[in-house]
Inverse folding.
């Protein structure tokens, strides 16, 4: 079969098909290139379920108005300031406000955060929770903390139960 001549109706159809195919491929490549951004994913290594694409909430806002967020799925981001050295079952992320941070705790073994993650930037998601300890639980917690850090501890110094907030983590992305 001879090739269609320019100006021939078959040639015009082929030219239109080629143009449309090229446009569709270009659009597909653009979508793929920006898929992480469109899906709400941050570049880096994914842990757990990854990220759902929700809106990021500043840690300072969570801690300033915790009752507003309890039980809700939230996304936070910042520099990792601590990692569980025993099981990798939590990380702490620095707040946007100085001297604040927030722990992202996962079920042991569900996600294992590497010790090398400290100092890296992370985006994490999970359910914002309130932890209320009894006075005795607070004393045991503070005693354990003191022992881990080689510090003196007097149980009588604990006069009030602790209340703190953390995220029960479902996923995170840690950037290299």
């Amino acid at each position: 079969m001879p090739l269609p001549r320019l100006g021939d109706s078959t040639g015009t159809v082929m030219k239109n098909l080629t143009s449309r195919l090229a446009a569709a491929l270009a659009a597909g490549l653009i979508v793929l290139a920006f898929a992480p951004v469109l899906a709400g994913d941050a570049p880096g290594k994914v842990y757990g379920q990854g990220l759902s694409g929700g809106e990021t909430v500043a840690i300072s806002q969570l801690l300033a108005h915790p009752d507003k967020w309890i039980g809700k799925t939230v996304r936070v981001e910042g520099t990792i300031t601590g990692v569980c050295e025993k099981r990798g079952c939590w990380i702490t992320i620095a707040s946007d406000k100085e001297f604040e941070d927030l722990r992202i705790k996962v079920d042991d073994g569900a996600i294992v955060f590497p010790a090398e993650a400290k100092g890296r930037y992370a985006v994490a998601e999970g359910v914002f929770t309130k932890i209320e300890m009894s006075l005795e639980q607070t004393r045991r917690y503070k005693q354990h903390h003191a022992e881990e850090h080689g510090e003196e501890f007097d149980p009588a110094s604990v006069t009030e139960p602790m209340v703190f907030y953390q995220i029960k983590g479902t996923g995170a992305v840690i950037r290299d």
About this structure: Strands lie at 45-48, 73-83, 90-94, 101-105, 121-132, 163-174. The chain has two domains: 1-38, 45-174. Confidence is low (pLDDT under 50) at residues 21-40.
